[in-house]
Amino acid sequence: MGRFLLLAGAFAASLAVVVDARAGTYTSQELMIPMSDGVPIAATLFTPDGTPPRGGRPAVMLLHGLGQNRSSIDGATGTSVNGIAGDWLASEGYVALTFDARAHGASGGLFSLDGPREVGDVRELRRWLSQRPGVNPSRIGAFGVSLGGGALWRAAVEGVPFASIVTGVTWTDLYEALLPQDLAKSGPIFSLQSSLSGRLEPNTARLLPHAVAGTNLAALRDFTEARSARHLLDRVRTPVFMIQGRRDFAFDMEQALSAFSRVRAPKRLYLTGLGHSPATNSPDERPHVLTRMRLWFDRFLKGVRNGIDSGPPIEIAPDPWRGKSVVFRTVPRRKVATYRLKGTRTIESSGSVVRVLRLPRRPLELFGTPLVQATVSTRTGWRHLVAVLSAVTPGRPEVVVSTGGASTASLRARSRRITIRLMSNATLIPTGSTLRLRLAATSAPLYVVGVPRGSRLTIGAITLSVPALRYPISR
Fold first, then answer.
1. Tens digits of per-residue pLDDT, 374-426?
2. Half-sphere exposure of residue 256: CA atoms within 13 angstroms, side-chain side
3. In a designed cystine with 224, which of 174, 297, 298, 363 is the match (CB 3.0 to 4.6 A)?
4. Residues with Cβ < 8 Å from 38, sequence gap 6 or more?
5. CA-CA distance, 190 to 208, in Å (whole number)?
6. Which of 428, 453, 435 shows the shortest CA–CA distance to 387?
7. Looking at residue 423, what DSSP letter applies?
8. Dihedral of the alpha carbons of 234, 238, 244, 250, in degrees to the nearest 10
9. SS3 of 19, please?
10. Distance in angstroms (rounded) separating the CA atoms of residues 296 and 164
């Protein structure tokens, strides 16, 4: 019980609450909204008290992250989408709709990782919201975090007519996020498979084990392309505010940087300390980020000329957060430091090669994608190689700067030069640090599937390229 299907598009409220908020009061209603395939979606509608203006109020839909529901506290924002809807939107005159994604929380259905059915839910819920009394149907926006952001990007390229969107710590290319260089981030994919076991759509359930193992890549490319937006971003005409983590090992900076370069609509990019692990998620930065989100909606849903779209379009939070971000008119200029590391060593399946180098005595703020090039060969076969770059400073814990891997399934006895692209991020490396580069078959928690026992790999000369800001903004 606890779930019911509402007939003829009607809805029933199981709870109505009037809440005092910062700028105004609002009423919330708990709903079950049927989709066109009969699946009920659990939702909450937040409506400001009082008489709506002529033409109706602006409205915002809010989409939560993977494995969560509309009431879950998100580690990045420090609140739930319900909390954002009430405290940051309904209290400021917006109608807000939150909902449990299909196969999450109290909603029915099966999960297909932001596939056509989930995007269809977004389209249908937007249409439902546009028909509510007191809502202006031409002034509906949306905010999505992680999984919700992926659905929102796909909805945007498929023409769901949002007047404005804000995407948070998410992907634009799902294949690149899950299987960069054809090597699966097996740890997170396995966790996804386990957490939603029993609620997976059959094709998704069939493909996820292949994603963990990095097999059947052609089918995985088709699957992820249907859930990605990057190759279609020239279609986007909706004003979009991208919020992406400066240190996020689920969806790195490149997911948003690439989108920023492609979108031609009004746009803004905020690189934040919030996000998935290993983001710091400073509580002090959260109000700044959520305020920027609301200002974007104020500009494009309320028509308030507040300057959010007229200043420098790129904003970067320093680490640690100091109460103020740094703005840029373009992606900041970088310098690339290249280090050549000599030596040859042969490792077995559980072994590793570690090279250490001391940096100049000045702070270095890595920004972008480090590259590792290595001369390798094998007589036994070796499926993949993983690189982990970390910084070691006396008196401080070792910090993982970035990590990445590449398939080496085609390697033979003859030496070959391979390139591993590490994840794009912004990390301050303090003065006096040494860099530690480790090459191996695995690196928890991202790359947990090893190579067969008895495999041997010879690693020779290594080149490490590290892009960094010309002038660090952190300290």
1. 999 999 999 999 999 999 987 788 999 999 999 998 888 889 999 999 999 99
2. 33
3. 174
4. 5
5. 8
6. 435
7. P
8. -60
9. strand
10. 8
Taking the chain, what is the end-to-end CA distance rounded to the nearest angstrom?
54
pLDDT of residue 430: 87
Those residues with Cβ within 8 angstroms of residue 8's Cβ, 6 or more apart along the chain or in another chain: none
Whether this prediction's pTM lies above 0.85 is answered by: yes
Cα–Cα distances in Å, from 209 out to 44, 167, 192? 35, 28, 11
pLDDT of residue 62: 98
- Six-digit token string for 356: 């250490």
pLDDT at residue number 349 = 96
Number of H helices and E strands in the chain, helices first, is 9, 22
Q: Which residue has the tokens 């490792």?
A: 347
Write out the H or E segment, with its range, that includes residue 389: strand 384-392
Q: Which residue has the tokens 């040859």?
A: 344
The CA distance from 295 to 138, in Å, is 18
- Distance (Å, whole) CA 117 – CA 469: 42
Q: Distance between alpha carbon 164 and the CA centroid of its chain, in Å? A: 19
Note whether 236 and 265 are within 8 A (CB): yes
Instruction: Quote the CA–CA distance of 390 and 380 in Å, as a whole number.
Output: 29
Closest to 419 in 3D by CA, of 184, 182, 189: 182
How far is C-alpha 231 from the geometric centre of its chain's CA atoms?
Answer: 17
CA distance 1 to 249: 39
Four-point Cα dihedral 276, 278, 282, 288, nearest 10: -50
Residue 163 DSSP SS3: coil
- Contacts of residue 73, defined as CB under 8 A and 6 or more positions apart, other chains included, come to 79, 80, 83
Amino acid present at 52: P
pLDDT band with cut points at 50, 70 and 90 for residue 23:
low
Residue 360 tokens read as 């100049």
Q: Are 455 and 349 in contact (CB under 8 A)?
A: yes
Cα 463 from chain centroid (whole Å): 29
